[in-house]
Structures are given as C-alpha cells and as structure tokens.
C-alpha cells in the first residue's frame, strides 16, 4: 500500500512538470486538465516501455517534434538507465525521432514503417554506438527482406522490442516465440527449423541431403540425438587427429553455441562465419584475439580456434591446424558440415 502511494506521488510531480513545460512552450496548453491523470495508467509494451496509444493520454499526439516539449535535459534524466542511449539522442538530428517511435509507439503519426525507425542511423555509426562494426561485413548478412542489405526492417524481425540498456537479454531484446528461449541457439533455431517462424524460412542446406534444416542437424531428427551433430546435441567420441587447444574451456560432450562460430548481423566470411576468435567465448587468450577468414570451403582458421594438433602447421591467423593423414584435401566441406554427424559420415561435425 505504502509503495503504491509513493508511486502515485512521483507520477503527479511528473505530470505537474510536464504541464509547466507545455505551458511554457505552447501558448495553449491543452493537456493539463483532467485527462493528465490518465498518465498513471499509461499502456506499456511487453517489456515495460510506455506507449503513445491515443490522443487522450498524450498531449503531443500526432506531433513529430518531440524535442519541443521533451527537451534533451529531460530526456537524459528519463533515460538515465543507460546514459549511452540518452546521449545518442543528442547525436542525431532533432527530427530523427524514429528511435522514439520504435520504443514508444507511433504516436498516431501516419505511414510509420520499420524504415522510419532509423536503426542503422545510430547502429552503423561508430561514433554513436560502439558495436557498429557488427554491421560492417559484406559477404554474408541476415538480409531477411531480400533487398540486398541488412536494414531497419531486418532488425525488427529479430529485435521486435529492445530496451537498449546496453546489454543483451534473451527476454527483452529478441522477438519472442510462444516459449521463452533458453539460450541464443534456441533463438536461432526458432527460424532455422524449416517451419517459417516470423514469416522467414532460411534456404535449404548446401551440403546435406539427409536434412532440410539446421534444427534437425543440431538437435537430431525427431529428437534422436544419435542423428545430431557433435557440435550440437550429440556427445562426441573424443578426437582422433587432434586435441582441444591447451587453456581452452572446450571439452568433449558439450553443445557449442551457434554464435561461437557464427556472427549474426554481417560477416566478410561466407555463411556468416565469425570474423574474430572472440566469438568463441571459451577459447584461450591467443585464440580469442585471432582474426578468422574463410577461403573457399577452407575453414581451417575457424576450426583452429578450438582444435589443434601439436605438430600442426601454423594457420593464416597464427594458430595451429589439425593434421590429417596425407591425401585429405583442403575442401573441408567434403567431409565436415552441418549434418555430418549422422549416418555413414558419423562424427565429422
Ligand atoms: C506539444 C508537446 C508535446 C510533444 C510535441 C510531444 N509530447 Fe510527449 N508528452 C507531452 C506531455 C505534456 C506529456 C505528459 C502526459 C500528457 O499529458 O500528455 C507527454 C508524455 C509523453 C510520454 C509518456 C506517456 C505516458 O503515458 O507515460 C512519452 C513516452 C512521450 N510523451 C513521448 C513523446 C514522443 C516520442 C514525442 C514525439 C513523437 C512526443 N512525446 C511529443 C507533451 C508533448
Ligand atoms: C530504447 C527504448 C527507448 C527509446 C529509444 C526512447 N525511450 Fe523514452 N522511455 C523508455 C523507457 C524504458 C521509459 C520509462 C523510463 C522509466 O519509467 O524510468 C521511457 C520514458 C519516456 C518518457 C517519460 C514517460 C513517463 O511516464 O514519465 C518520455 C517523455 C520519453 N520516454 C520520451 C522519449 C523521446 C522523446 C524519445 C526519442 C528521443 C525516447 N523517449 C526514446 C524507452 C525509450
Ligand atoms: C537474425 C536475427 C537478427 C537480426 C536480423 C538483427 N539482429 Fe541484432 N542481434 C541478434 C542476436 C542473436 C544478437 C546477440 C548476439 C550475441 O549474443 O552474440 C544481437 C545483438 C545485437 C546488438 C548487441 C551487440 C553487442 O555486442 O552489444 C545490437 C546493438 C543489435 N543486435 C542491433 C541490431 C540492428 C541495429 C539490426 C538491424 C540492422 C539487427 N541487430 C539485426 C539477432 C539479430
Ligand atoms: C538514436 C540512436 C539509436 C537508434 C535510432 C537505435 N538505437 Fe539501438 N541502441 C542505441 C544505443 C546508444 C544503444 C546502447 C549501446 C550501448 O550501451 O553499448 C542501443 C542498443 C541496442 C541494442 C542492444 C541491446 C540492449 O538492450 O542494449 C539493440 C538490440 C538495439 N539497440 C536495437 C535497435 C533497433 C532494432 C533499432 C531500430 C528499430 C535501434 N536500435 C535504433 C541507439 C540507437
Ligand atoms: C527471423 C528468422 C531467423 C533467425 C532468428 C535467424 N536466422 Fe539465420 N537466416 C534466416 C534466413 C531467412 C536466412 C537466409 C536469408 C539470408 O541469408 O539473409 C538466414 C541465413 C543464415 C545463414 C547464412 C546461410 C547461407 O546459406 O549463407 C547463417 C549462417 C545463419 N542464418 C545463422 C543464424 C544464426 C547463427 C542465428 C542466431 C544467432 C540465426 N541465423 C537466426 C532466418 C533467421
Ligand atoms: C568454438 C569451438 C569449436 C570450433 C570453432 C570448432 N569446434 Fe569442433 N568441436 C568442439 C567441441 C567442444 C567438440 C566436442 C563436442 C562434443 O563432444 O559434444 C568438437 C568436436 C568436433 C569433432 C568430433 C570429435 C569427436 O569428439 O568425436 C569434429 C570432427 C570437429 N569438432 C570438427 C570441427 C571442424 C571441422 C571445425 C571447423 C569447421 C570445428 N570442429 C570447429 C568445438 C569447436
Ligand atoms: C576426406 C575427409 C576429410 C577432409 C576433406 C577434411 N577432414 Fe577433418 N577430419 C576427417 C576425419 C575422418 C576426422 C576424424 C573425426 C573424428 O575424430 O571422429 C577429422 C577431424 C577433424 C577435426 C577434429 C579433430 C579430431 O581429431 O577429430 C578438425 C578440427 C578437422 N578435421 C578440420 C578439418 C579442416 C579444417 C579441413 C579442411 C582444411 C578438414 N578437416 C578436411 C576427415 C576430413
Ligand atoms: C563449430 C562451429 C559451428 C557451430 C557451433 C554452428 N555452425 Fe553453422 N556453420 C559452420 C560452418 C563451418 C558452416 C559451413 C559449412 C556448412 O554449411 O555446414 C556453417 C553453415 C551454416 C549454415 C548454412 C548451411 C548451408 O548448408 O547452407 C547455417 C544456416 C548455419 N550454419 C546455422 C547455424 C546455427 C543456427 C547454429 C546453431 C544452432 C550453427 N550454425 C552452429 C560452423 C558452425
């Protein structure tokens, strides 16, 4: 009960401040009357961000000039849960209100689409968002709308809601299926399972005829883990040509997350293969700092983040490769690919 009263008091102070602000800014202050109490019952989206849903609850309804009534200092204070977010608003033009609408709803403005949200305006600019390099790759990308680039409408397929608090959270930053995700791989597999989640179906596999999708290769057909990849649900038998790198946290019997091998947004490598060893979170210090490039179907620099042979040749990224008997060629996907954990190819992936 006490809590409730404290919250109410905070609300009315806030409403009072808004009214002062709008009185100062507007000759006719429309919203300071009885309806301002509706603020306390503002609708929130599923991750708790207040939504501008109707003219009664927002005196700036249908207006695009947010900064007129919500000056920077006020926005900084409101969004101080992540100062980097608040300061990003100052780095774009006052008319670039796409981010406001993505988080707060359309505010009744007509013609708002995902393109209006301007995700890449901030996220592809390293002086606004530090992780902008994630969008710098060109060879492969999650171009879900097929327009040749990863853009705003692609972002919102995976990030239907996000709070931009500076750290990724499975429950807030990703579009949700009916069940909560246990880990990032479960999110990937929600789409890469061949049933068209979120209206998107990835293409059939390039290297395996037994399977049509990654879910089946990774988890096994109909849940039969003996048909699964060893990097996936099946436990390996122990390596024959190589060993795990000394100092690495990788061991037999574990499932390797998709994002230890793959980037998500863009990559200069085919198949969105990671460009940097730091994606392999359990790798040793040397491997974590190694760059990764893929040449044709030679994935040596990737595999070497985790696997090695003590007598292996030095790889292009300064690690050590796995020595195969002579006669094995450098077209690794002749033998190693998603699906190669099954059948006569047993245990090769
Ligand atoms: C004409 C002044 C004005 C403009 C322009 C304006 N607002 Fe507001 N806004 C207000 C006032 C006043 C309130 C306090 C609640 C009320 O009475 O409407 C408010 C409340 C809000 C709230 C809190 C809503 C709630 O119910 O908790 C959000 C979010 C918001 N504004 C965002 C925006 C965004 C985004 C824009 C631009 C697209 C914008 N505002 C434009 C005056 C304005
Ligand atoms: C990443 C999502 C996000 C973005 C982008 C964002 N906001 Fe917010 N905003 C929030 C959250 C979360 C709150 C609630 C904060 C709280 O209650 O402490 C909020 C609260 C507000 C409020 C006050 C609501 C209230 O009830 O007091 C206003 C006004 C507001 N935002 C305006 C804006 C404007 C204008 C922009 C664009 C410059 C913007 N916001 C961009 C997430 C966002
Ligand atoms: C195919 C789904 C998908 C698409 C499309 C997508 N993302 Fe992501 N995004 C992810 C996943 C998964 C992660 C978490 C990656 C991880 O934990 O390694 C992520 C992480 C992020 C991060 C946090 C990165 C960090 O390291 O701090 C940002 C920022 C981000 N995405 C923005 C975007 C933007 C902007 C777009 C559109 C240009 C976009 N994403 C498109 C799935 C996607
Ligand atoms: C006005 C600049 C701006 C715009 C526009 C913008 N973002 Fe962000 N976003 C940020 C900032 C700043 C962060 C926090 C980065 C940090 O703290 O490292 C962030 C963080 C994120 C994250 C990381 C997860 C988290 O909780 O921090 C995701 C995902 C994300 N944004 C997605 C999007 C998507 C999708 C869009 C478009 C719909 C978008 N952003 C538009 C500035 C922006
Ligand atoms: C919204 C559904 C969706 C989600 C979620 C998703 N993907 Fe995809 N993915 C696709 C589609 C559709 C394609 C094919 C179109 C394209 O490449 O842009 C694709 C392509 C790919 C490719 C490239 C395939 C090729 O033939 O080059 C890889 C690798 C990939 N995804 C891995 C992942 C990983 C890893 C995750 C999780 C971090 C993930 N995907 C999450 C839908 C999704
Ligand atoms: C991020 C670390 C990592 C990367 C990168 C990686 N692997 Fe693995 N690999 C593992 C782990 C961990 C296992 C053991 C999994 C298990 O036993 O369940 C494994 C097992 C294997 C096995 C089966 C060995 C056995 O125990 O039966 C083969 C074959 C294999 N990997 C090949 C490759 C190839 C080829 C590449 C490069 C395309 C590669 N791996 C990249 C971590 C990695
Ligand atoms: C002709 C088939 C073939 C080709 C081509 C091939 N490999 Fe292998 N590879 C094998 C076999 C067989 C194993 C042993 C599998 C096991 O341990 O169960 C193996 C094992 C591995 C392992 C795991 C270490 C171990 O001891 O199990 C890695 C890593 C690996 N290969 C990388 C590569 C890379 C990188 C390429 C391409 C440059 C490549 N392989 C090409 C057949 C092949
Ligand atoms: C051990 C490293 C590793 C892990 C873990 C891994 N991948 Fe891959 N992935 C690869 C390599 C290497 C290729 C290229 C060879 C191939 O297509 O199988 C690839 C290819 C792909 C492709 C393109 C397949 C095709 O045949 O066109 C998709 C899609 C994909 N991965 C998605 C995923 C998803 C989703 C996960 C997690 C469930 C995942 N990968 C886990 C290394 C990995």
Task: Identify low-pLDDT runs.
Answer: 1-40
Strand content: under 5%
Total helical segments? 12
Oligomer: single chain
Order of helices and strands: HHHHHHEHHHEHEHHE
Q: Structural class, from helix and strand content?
A: mainly alpha
Taking the alpha carbons of the first and last residues, their distance comes to: 58 Å
Q: What is the makeup of the main sheet?
A: 2 strands, antiparallel
User: What are the distinct ligands in this entry?
Assistant: heme C
Principal-axis shape equals: elongated
In the sheet with the most strands, the strands line up as 1-3
Mean pLDDT: 89
The tally of beta strands, per DSSP, is 4
Report on the structure:
- The protein is an all-alpha fold and 349 residues long.
- It has 3 domains: 1-41; 44-176, no CATH class; 183-349, no CATH class.
- Helix content is 26%, strand content 2%.
- It is built from 12 helices and 4 strands; from the N terminus they run H-H-H-H-H-H-E-H-H-H-E-H-E-H-H-E.
- It has helices spanning 2-25, 66-69, 72-78, 83-91, 98-104, 119-123, 152-158, 184-191, 214-219, 258-261, 285-288, 300-303, and strands at residues 140-141, 243-244, 266-267, 307-308.
- It has a two-stranded antiparallel ribbon with strand order 1-3.
- The site of one heme C has 20 residues, from helix 6, helix 7 and helix 8.
């Amino acid at each position: 009960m006490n809590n409730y009263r404290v919250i109410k008091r905070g609300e009315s102070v806030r409403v009072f401040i808004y009214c002062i602000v709008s009185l100062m800014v507007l000759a006719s202050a429309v919203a300071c009357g009885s309806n301002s109490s509706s603020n306390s019952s503002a609708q929130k989206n599923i991750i708790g961000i207040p939504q501008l849903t109707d003219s009664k609850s927002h005196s700036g309804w249908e207006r695009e000039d947010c900064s007129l009534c919500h000056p920077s200092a006020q926005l900084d204070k409101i969004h101080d849960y992540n100062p980097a977010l608040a300061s990003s608003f100052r780095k774009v033009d006052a008319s670039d209100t796409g981010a406001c609408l993505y988080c707060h709803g359309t505010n009744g403005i007509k013609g708002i689409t995902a393109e209006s949200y301007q995700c890449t305006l901030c996220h592809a600019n390293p002086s606004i968002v530090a992780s902008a390099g994630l969008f710098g790759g060109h060879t492969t990308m999650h171009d879900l709308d097929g327009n040749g680039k990863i853009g705003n409408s692609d972002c919102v397929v995976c990030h239907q809601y996000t709070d931009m608090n500076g750290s990724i959270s499975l429950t807030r930053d990703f579009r949700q299926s009916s069940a909560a995700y246990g880990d990032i791989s479960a999110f990937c597999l929600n789409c890469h399972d061949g049933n068209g989640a979120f209206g998107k179906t990835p293409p059939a596999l390039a290297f395996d005829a037994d399977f049509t999708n990654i879910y089946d290769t990774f988890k096994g057909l109909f849940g039969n883990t003996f048909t699964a990849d060893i990097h996936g649900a099946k436990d390996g038998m122990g390596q024959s040509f190589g060993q795990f790198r000394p100092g690495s946290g990788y061991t037999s019997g574990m499932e390797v997350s998709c994002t230890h091998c793959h980037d998500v947004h863009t990559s200069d490598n085919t198949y969105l293969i990671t460009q940097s060893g730091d994606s392999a979170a359990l790798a040793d210090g040397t491997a974590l700092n190694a760059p990764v490039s893929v040449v044709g179907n030679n994935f040596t620099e990737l595999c070497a983040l985790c696997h090695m042979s003590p007598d292996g040749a030095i790889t292009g990224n300064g690690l050590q490769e796995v020595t195969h008997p002579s006669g094995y060629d450098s077209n690794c996907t002749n033998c190693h690919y998603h699906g190669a954990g099954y059948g006569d190819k047993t245990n090769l992936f």
